[in-house]
Every structure is written in C-alpha cells, then in structure tokens.
Amino acid sequence: IVMCASPSSIRQILLAAEELGMQETGEFVFFNVELFTSKNSTQRPWYNEDDSPEINGRARRAYQSLLTVTDRVPDTPEYAEFSREIKNITRMKYGFNYGAEEVSAYATAFHEAVLLYALALNETLEEGDDIMNGRVITQKMWNRTFEGITGNVRIDDNGDRNVDFSLLDMDPDTGDFQVVANYYGVTKQFERVPGKKIHWAGGREDPPPDIPPCGFDGTKCSNEKIPKYAIISGLLSGFLIALCITSFFIYRRFKQEAELVSMTWKIKWEEITTSSSTNRYLGSRTSLGRNSLYSSCSEETLASGMKGKQVFTKTGYYKGVIVAIKPLVKTRIEINRPLLLELKRMKDLQNDHIVRFIGACVDPPYCCLVTEYCPKGSLQDILENEEIKLDWMFRCSLLQDTVKGMAYLHNSDVRSHGNLKSSNCVVDSRFVLKITDIGLHALRTPEENDNKETYAYWRKKLWTAPEILRMPDPTPEGTQKGDVYSFAIIASEVVVRQGPFYLNEVDLSPKEIIERVKENRKPPFRPFLDENLYDDEVIQMIKKCWAEDPMERPDFHLLKSIVRRLSRSVARQLIHGEAVTAEAYDSVSIYFSDIVGFTSISAQSTPMEVIDLLNDLYTCFDSIIENFDVYKVETIGDAYMVVSGLPMKNGNIHAKEIARMSLALLNAVKTFKIRHRPDDQLKLRIGIHSGPCAAGVVGLKMPRYCLFGDTVNTASRMESNGQPLKIHVSPKTKEILDLFGTFTLELRGEVEMKGKGKITTYWLVEEVSTPSVSNFTKDSSLTQLKEVNI
C-alpha cells in the first residue's frame, strides 16, 4: 500500500491496521513517500508525546510494517559545509534552530539549479551566442552531468533531474528509523547499506507476495465444506436453465405445429379471379410482334414446329394482385405431414431472386400452385427472341441474379432445385431474374409418367448433370452439384443465344445428345463454345461448372464472386470478333435518385398521366443538369442516374459538381407540380458515392454508354438506403467535399448496407456561397458529346 500523506494520517492508518492484526501476518507493507524531510523521519515518527505509553506502544508495533521513501541525504563534504552555512544563517537571521533535522533537499536543489544555469551561461558566452536567447541556454542545461554539492548531478534530455532516494526502515530493537538502502538516479542502481537490512513485519525473512495466497478476498482458497446455500443455488440455477431450454424447444415445436395446422398457404379457388380476356393481356410481353399461343405449360413441352410462338403463363388475380397459376394434374391430393412441412418451407423462402410462393389450391378439380407473376417471361423466352437486344452488361446481370438466387436456395432448408433450366428462370417487370418451379415435387407430375419417345421428354433433360442421368432412379430434388451443372448450360445459353446445348454445325436430337452426355468420354460431350468469340474468363467459368467430376465444380457462393468479376471486366468483351474497349477512371462521383411512392402514384394514374409526369420531371431535370459538369447515364422509370468525372476527367471537381447538382434538383422537386395531382409533392430520394469505375460503349446494334464497378453498386445502395427529400452521401464523397470547405454535411451515423456491412454516412444540407449558374462555364466538348446519339 503506497501512501503520500501527512504524519498524523499515517499514524491513524497504521493504528487501524494494528487493530486488524495485519502486522501479525506480515502480508501487508505500507510505503510512505515523503515530499519533505520531516524532523522525525530518521528517528521515531511513531512517538507522540501527547499520547499515553499504551498508544505509543501500539504505534511502535504498527510502524514495523512501514517503509519510508525520502530524498537521500548526501554524504559529500560540500553538502556538509552547505548544511552548516544554511543552519547558521537561519539561526542568526531568523532565530530558527534546525537541531537534528536535516536541511531540506529543495534548498540544495535550488543551489545546484543556479550552478547549472551559471555553467550554461558561461558556455553561451564562450561560444559567442546571445545570452538573451533562452532556448540556447536551456538546451545547454539539458542532457548533461556536472559536479554539485550533493555529488554528480544528472539532467536528462527532458530537463528532468535524476534524483537519489533513500529507503528508511524501523529497527525493532531501538525503534529508530534508519537508512537501509539507497537508489542512485545517475547510475539507476539500488544499493543496500552495508550492515543494514529490512525488518519485515510478522517475523518474515522475505517481502510478502504481490497477491496473498488466498487472494485479497479469500476466493482463491477452496473451503473444506461447500455451504448448503451454494449447493441449493447451483441446483436451482441448473433447473431453471434446463427449464428455459426445454420451454424454448417446446415453444418452437408448438409454433411449428400451429403454423402447419393453420395452413396459411391454403387458397380457395373462389378467391382467384380468372378470365380469358384477362389472361390474354396478363401474359409475357417480351416477344411482342411474334405469334402468341396461350398455354399453361412451359415452352419445352411444345413440339419443335411450335417454337416460334410465345408461351404465356396462366394468370389471375388474388387479393387484387396478379399471380401466376400452375395447374396440378392431380385428381386427389393427400395432405400429410411431409407435404405440410414442404409447403411451410416454400412459404418461408424470401429472396429477391426467388419467385415467391403465395399458396396452393388443393380442392379438386381446381388444384394449382399460386406464385408471384413475372410479366417479362422466362429467360428462355428472352434469349430466343431475336428482337430483344442484350448487351454484355445485361447478360452478366442475368447470370448474377441466377447465382444469387441459387446461393440462397442452397443455403435454405430446401437445399437444392433439381430442375434448374432457362425456362424456370423468369424475369419480372424491373428485369430482375427470379428462379421458379422449386420444391413440392410430390404435387408435380412425375417424369416417369411422360412419354419417353417424345421430343419434349428428352429436351428438358438437356440441363441435367451426367451423374444424375446415369442414375436408374434419380430423386426429383437432385443435388447441389447437379444444379451447378444446370447453371453452366444456362450460362452457355446466355452467352451464345443459340438455345440449350448448341453444337455449332452438328445436328443431333435431344435424345442423341443425352446419350452422348451419359457416356464417359474424354473430353466429355458438352455444348460448343468458340473461345475466339467470348471472354476467356466466361469460358473458364462455364467449363468448371460442367466438369465431369462433380467435386471439381464450384459452389454458388464461389460463383457469386466469379460472376461479379465478369460484370466489371468488359474491356475484353468481344462482339462478333470486334473488341469493345472500356476506359478506367480513378475517381468519379455517381448520382442515383428515384421517387418514393412512385408505384402508388402510377397505380392511381392512367398510363398517359404517368408518361406526362415523367416527361415533365425529366425535362426539368435535364434543363438543370446542363448547368453542371455532369453526364446523364440513363433513366429507367422513375430512376435517374448521373455521373461526373467522365468521359472528361476533371480531378476532384466531380464531387462538387454532383453535390451542387443534387442540391439544385432537390430544390426544384420541392416546387414541382404534377399536372393531374397538383396538391401532391414528389419525394425525391438521392444517393451519392465517389470512387473508381470503368465505362465504355457496349453493343453494336443498340450501343449504350455503360458504367461498371463497385462504385455504381454502392451509389445505388446509398440511394436505396436514403430518405425522402434528403441527399445521402458516402464517406468517400464527404472526404472530397471537405476539401472545398463550402459544403455543410450532417452526420447520419452507421447504416447497414447489403453487401457492405455498416457504413458511416452523411446528409448533404447546403453549400455556402454557391456560385450562380451564370458564372458557370460549360465544357463545350462535354456538351457536344451529350448531343452525340450513341
């Protein structure tokens, strides 16, 4: 216990410790650091002439556990002479008699400080420096050793003196405190005084340990007998824990059973509204201009002569929402526990790239599955429609959506698809690909009931993995590695756009193709890919996915990163043998915005009113952005995308231009009037992010200037995680805006962003002293570029 207290306080503490018997065990040592040398430090600090002999006796016993640290009394002749002079002057001038008390160490320190200053001053004069320059004199006083009246005096490079200390201990025989050891600051050595030793309390020969054997509170020593209350407490705690765990599992079981019994998936046929006129307009609109055929089956079930026609999914209205209806060829459906569990698993699937299972109608003769409706049709429809132009970026997006959906599916309770093909990948109104026909194999028509001599039977096996084709009785749910093989066939369809299993000039029927795939050939029989026409990374990915050995195929979590790289690297994309080179930009700023509640406005407006709204809004926006060094990339529905820093690089100005433009657009939308709804205010949501990206013209027949890179994705995330009528700014953009010192930003805090984790973001509030539009000089080359129709 280290103290730095007055003598009276020390005496009280030690007497209290004596009452507790601390000195008897010797487990405690009291250290007192004296700021000033007291008269009784080297004699009997325990003695008080006003106390009784009994109390002084107790104090003497208590002081056995005290060690005192004080300034060392020098033993040099110079110090002895100095002390005599000080005592004489004090007695003659001030009438004070020191007696046995030593002269304060501070007096000698002051004397040696003057001596040190004199030495530094002399050196300054000898070297011809200015004695008024205190910095020079001070530097000469530091980091040096000189001979003082107390011996060698050392000043370190911080200007601090290395002080000497003495350790005082009480002799138990005489009761006097004596010096038993010294610490020398110059040499940094601790030396014991010959013939002296420390007398430890309690009769110990060595100092007590840092921590007592049983700890300071005795918890390290186990009791010989555990108290009954501890045993009872332990049993009760264990019982409560077991009860909580059991209750949790019972609750989960009852909740699951309640969900199974409630059958939230069950739909009555009367709740679904269908009509032939309605269905005529609710089908896929991806192949307008071709002959259409209304059918409830997939295109793969059609004869080869009917493939030129568009296939529609049967649709209807359920609770006011358009849904897809898949009839079940079942005369009777038995609702058993395995089916209930599978229906619950299907109902629990919630992902942006999985078609949402709404429910099922199991009342004969109207047995059907009801799912989310995707109006753009299947991926197979889109790929086989030559009128739809797909640039490379859009193809990568389709593949990325497929991989994301399958990665989620493989990580869910469903585990695998088993029937993945391009006709089971559908596209919604926002061109997001989603996977359908998942699970519920007990309700679907078994393949063994199909006619094995038909074209359709063999064609729908073109996506099936070879190891599954070789099985005598494969399970309908398939395998995860088999799904990866199916994805490879879909990827080849997306790349080549020549249907599944394109063989160049070789003409084989689906049955012949399946027979060759089943054979253990080297190399294995696979679709034809011209390596001179397509990106090498794409070719390698597809080949890994359809490897003969299932263990060599990557899983979908790995494919997510592979496909993400493909969508960023368009520089090597070859179209019909001609390279399309993309340019990389180190730093740009990207703006995304959309209108919150636009879907609701559109639902309550006529198509012409929606067109007028968007035309008025974008005309207003286009007139504003012309005053800034920015480039409008595209508009999709109510979404608006603008970039600065390309195609003409402008240093760090891009962030300032996008920020100014955002403030201008936000101010404009606050006063914007909707023709058919003048009392409503549009709520614009804006997101900004800065970073590197690649950009280039993609496609030949329908060229588009596209941006690629993670910066685009992050900017979109900033917009989607923003708030209406606010400008959401990323930390990277804020870092650049801070360089200009004219923008006011408010800290929003940490925001959880999909794929990014937690990011600290900001709100852009205003710009101070913003230059007027008339003072802004537009880049003529940029203006000319905007007028070029690419």
Automatic annotation (TrEMBL):
Signal peptide: none annotated. Residues 589-719 form the Guanylate cyclase domain. It catalyses: GTP = 3',5'-cyclic GMP + diphosphate. It is found in: Cell membrane. Its main location: membrane. The chain crosses the membrane at residues 229-251. Keywords: Cell membrane, cGMP biosynthesis, Glycoprotein, GTP-binding, Lyase, Membrane, Nucleotide-binding, Receptor, Signal, Transmembrane, Transmembrane helix. It is a single-pass type I membrane protein. SUPFAM superfamilies: Nucleotide cyclase (SSF55073), Periplasmic binding protein-like I (SSF53822), Protein kinase-like (PK-like) (SSF56112). InterPro entries: A/G_cyclase, A/G_cyclase_CS, ANF_lig-bd_rcpt, ANPR/GUC, Cyclic_nucleotide_synthase, Kinase-like_dom_sf, Nucleotide_cyclase, Peripla_BP_I. Its EC number is 4.6.1.2. PANTHER family: ATRIAL NATRIURETIC PEPTIDE RECEPTOR 2, GUANYLYL CYCLASE. This is Guanylate cyclase. It comes from Limulus polyphemus (Atlantic horseshoe crab).
